[in-house]
Amino acid sequence: MLVKKHLKDSGFAVINLDDELVFNRMKSLARNEIFYSTRSTRKNLKHLVTAKNIQSHGNESFCFNVEIKLGREKTSFKQPVCIPMIGAYNVSNALAALSVGCLLDIEEKKVVRGLKNMDRVPGRTEVLQKEPFYVIIDFAHTPNGLKNVLASVAKLKKSKKNKLLVVFGCAGKRDPSKRSLMGQIAARYADVTILTAEDPRTESLKKINDAIEKGWRSTASDHQEIIRYDDTLENVLVRQNAIKKALCLAQEGDVVIICGKAHEKSLCFGVTEYPWNDIAQTKKLLMHPCP
């Protein structure tokens, strides 16, 4: 692994204690570790950064109490922290940043202040619209990323009757094993799944979406819906039409999330990169009401 190859004997590994797979793999690779967690109550860890009393504030930010323990002594730092991002998983990301700051000998209060004042990252749970329904862009393109963002934005639905609609695909010439798994995750959280292109490259878009749908069908129930856009001859229009479909299906109180491309500037079909940006194109579509 890259960690084993590049981490020096005196170096530290920053490990997410809430990810059991990562924890089990990493603890045997590094001599020195600092752990972070949003739920751990372990007392026997030497270096630990935790978040407690996590609260969402108006779907605009998350606030929590951070506790930092360095060494075997009692907690050395406690302070409330607020981050201007939606998505509970961003609390975990903030703890990772705090952990790195500790290792770089940056004063904890400075890191906390930086988190509070940081700019929103384009394409990371970026909210384009809140009313009459949410429209969100996110870069999630892995099973874990998709799971985290769908679990978070599902909470933005106004009622149990409202729907979560997700638009995504899987890249060609990349890890094919994740396709079925991402289909399962979509079925677990979304009411409507719309499959489309995410850089199919020289692979068949239909076969990519077949693999995703296979996973979706193994998990979905009768009330859920899957829609596909597979025609690569349309190149970027295949993604544009998928997003348009989601926006036209959405009703007041629903949530639409478009995953996989976010801030990127092109879509690859064959060996050609076609100009494309999810954020800009979705904004254009929102300016034109559905027929």
Offer a quick outline of the entry.
The protein has nine helices and 13 strands. The mean pLDDT is 92.
Structure commentary:
The chain is an alpha/beta fold and 291 residues long. It folds into two domains: 2-117, UDP-N-acetylmuramoyl-L-alanine:D-glutamate ligase, CATH 3.40.1190; 126-286, Alpha-Beta Complex (Protein-Tyrosine Phosphatase, Chain A). It is 33% helix and 25% strand. The protein contains nine helices and 13 strands. It has a six-stranded mixed sheet with strand order 6-7-11-8-9-10, with helices on both faces. A five-stranded mixed sheet has the order 1-2-3-4-5, with helices on both faces. The protein has a two-stranded antiparallel ribbon with strand order 12-13. Strand 1 (12-16), helix 2 and strand 2 form a beta-alpha-beta unit. The chain starts with a helix and ends in a 5-residue tail after the last helix. The model has no long low-confidence stretch (mean pLDDT 92).
By CATH, the architecture of the largest domain is named Alpha-Beta Complex
Q: Please give the order of strands in the largest beta sheet.
A: 6-7-11-8-9-10
Q: Count the strands?
A: 13
Uncertain segments are none
Distance between the termini: 53 Å
**Structural class, from secondary structure content?**
alpha/beta
Q: What is the CATH C-level name of the largest domain?
A: Alpha Beta
